[in-house]
């Protein structure tokens, strides 16, 4: 009997000659040999990843084991190492472990938020709810959330008529833990609600767990992580978000939070007693970041081959 003909793969989207499986396997094996060992200059613990794109080109990446940042060039890796970003990631994780608000909400499933509303007979109380926006679920306790996750049972939010949940008029804030894969563990995103002449305004704040620095955008937070520099719109909290919402179901409403319900001028918390502006003449003009970590080159696709290798820690 003769040798069976080779199996061929053809493209559904492009016309051309079919590719024999033996040729593909040969190229894969050749690449695996070429990238069997990471370069000697790559620090211990870093991961080298090789991906093959649709056009047949191979793309090489270097990944930090601490932050997960993915870089393409040796110069980018060296600049990253001198930026101190890994140190800030590790410090954030250590602070997260010691932070009461964060550590007491490790049970909260991914995608859930804390919702803070004003209530009470004289609007002098604040209430904490747990919401899951995709399903429009609002619950009032840890036990209710875990029951819903396990058995899909929605419990009533019984506040004995003390807190209205039918509108956005009394919402003070939404709080999200670990809001982005680009930020280390311990960071908190707070969306502040306040009344203005134009309606309800929503302002995002990203809070650093180490120094309680507050950044208005994810880009500003990433600039701080990658360079250690603070943008001129950043603030530091006198009353940290980690302390402010560290209560069980209900607590007394802080006076500066009450202003969010009555503010008609459009002012924000940056002029309140809760924040101290960090801007100084020295940091109003910032040098470009050493490393661009928010966007990096990606191949058109990487569905054919992915080779990973890692230098072991000595």
Can you put this structure into words, describing what you see?
With 314 residues, the chain is of the alpha+beta class. It has 2 domains: 14-72 and 296-310, no CATH class; 86-277, no CATH class. It has helices at residues 21-34, 74-83, 85-98, 100-103, 142-151, 218-227, 241-244, 255-262; strands at residues 8-9, 19-20, 47-52, 58-63, 70-71, 113-119, 125-132, 137-139, 171-177, 188-196, 199-207, 213-215, 235-237, 250-252, 275-277, 306-310. The strands form 3 sheets. Strands 6, 7, 8, 9, 10, 11, 12, 13, 14 and 15 form a 10-stranded antiparallel beta sheet that branches. Strands 5-4-3-16 form a 4-stranded antiparallel beta sheet. A hairpin with a 5-residue loop joins strand 3 and strand 4 (58-63). The chain starts with 7 loop residues before the first strand and ends with a strand.
């Amino acid at each position: 009997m003769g040798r069976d003909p080779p199996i061929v793969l053809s493209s559904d989207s492009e016309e051309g000659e079919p590719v024999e499986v033996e040729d593909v396997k040969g190229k894969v094996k050749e690449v695996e040999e070429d990238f069997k060992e990471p370069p000697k200059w790559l620090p211990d613990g870093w991961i080298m990843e090789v991906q093959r794109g649709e056009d047949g080109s191979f793309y090489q990446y270097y990944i930090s084991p601490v932050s997960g940042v993915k870089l393409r060039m040796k110069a980018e890796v060296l600049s990253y190492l001198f930026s101190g970003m890994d140190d800030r990631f590790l410090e954030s994780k250590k602070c997260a472990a010691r932070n009461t608000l964060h550590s007491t909400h490790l049970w909260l499933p991914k995608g859930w938020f804390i919702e803070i509303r004003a209530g009470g007979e004289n609007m002098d109380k604040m209430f904490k709810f747990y919401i899951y926006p995709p399903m429009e679920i609002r619950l009032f306790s840890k036990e209710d959330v875990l029951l819903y996750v396990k058995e899909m049972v929605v419990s009533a939010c019984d506040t004995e008529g003390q807190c209205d949940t039918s509108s956005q008029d009394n919402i003070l804030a939404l709080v999200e833990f670990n809001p982005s894969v680009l930020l280390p563990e311990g960071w908190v995103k707070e969306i502040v609600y306040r009344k203005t002449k134009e309606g309800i305004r929503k302002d995002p704040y990203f809070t650093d767990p180490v120094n309680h620095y507050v950044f208005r955008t994810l880009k500003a937070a990433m600039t701080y992580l990658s360079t250690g520099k603070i943008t001129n719109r950043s603030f530091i909290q006198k009353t940290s978000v980690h302390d402010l919402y560290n209560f069980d179901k209900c607590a007394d409403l802080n006076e500066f939070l009450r202003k969010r319900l009555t503010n008609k001028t459009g002012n924000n918390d940056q002029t309140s007693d809760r924040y101290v502006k960090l801007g100084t003449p020295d940091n109003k003009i910032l040098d470009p970041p050493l490393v661009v970590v928010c966007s990096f080159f990606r191949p058109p696709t990487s569905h054919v081959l992915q080779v990973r290798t890692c230098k072991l820690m000595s």
